Amino acid sequence: MVNQVILVGRIVYDPELRVIDSGKTVTTLTLALQRNFKNAESGQYDTDFLRCTLWSGIAENTVQHCKKGSVVGIRGRLAQRFFEYGDESSFSYPEIIAERVSFISPKNPPSS
User: In order of start, what are the domains of the chain with their CATH numbers?
Assistant: First the structure.
C-alpha cells in the first residue's frame, strides 16, 4: 500500500520551531493550496488549507529559510488526527507528516 502526498502551496503563517519533551524539534505549517478550477457559483478559485508537521532537520531548515507567503513543495504521508474532549465530543482532521521540503520561492525574493 502507498501513502504518499505531494503538495505545492504558500505558507500561511511564519513557521516557529518548538522543542518537545524528548528534545526533538518540530514545526507545524498551514499550507494554502489553490484549486485548479473555479467555483461554479462564485467564479473564483477556491483554496484548501492543510496542516503539515515537520520534524528535526526539516523543521529547522524550514524555519530558517521560509516565512509567511513562501512557496514550498512538501512530500510526505497523510495521517488522521483524532481529539476527544471530556464531554465525550470529538473531532478529527487530516495532517501531512513531511518527509521532504523543497524551497520553491521566498515571499520577497532578493532584488538584483
Answer: 5-90 (2.40.50.140)
pLDDT tens for the chain, 112 residues: list them: 899 999 999 999 999 999 999 999 999 999 999 998 888 888 899 999 999 999 999 999 999 999 999 999 999 999 998 888 777 788 888 999 999 999 998 655 555 5
Count helices and strands (H / E) in the chain: 1, 6
> What residue has cell string 514550498?
72
CA-to-CA separations, 73 to 31, 98, 102, in angstroms, rounded: 10, 10, 5
What is the C-alpha to C-alpha distance for residues 61 and 51, in angstroms, rounded to an integer? 18
Place of cell 478550477: 37
**69 class by beta-carbon count within 10 Å (0-12 exposed, 13-18 middle, 19+ buried):** middle
